Amino acid sequence: MARSVVEKPAGVNQAKEPGSSALGRLKARLVRSYVRLRNSESSPRSLALGIGIGVFWGCIPLPGQTLLALASAWVFRGNKWAAAGATWVANPVSFAPLFAFNYLIGTRLLAWRGFSPPKELPKIGDFSFEGLATLGRGVAIPLFLGSVVVGLAGALIAFLLAYSLKKRLSRRP
Question: Do 29 and 51 fall within a single domain?
Answer without folding.
Answer: no
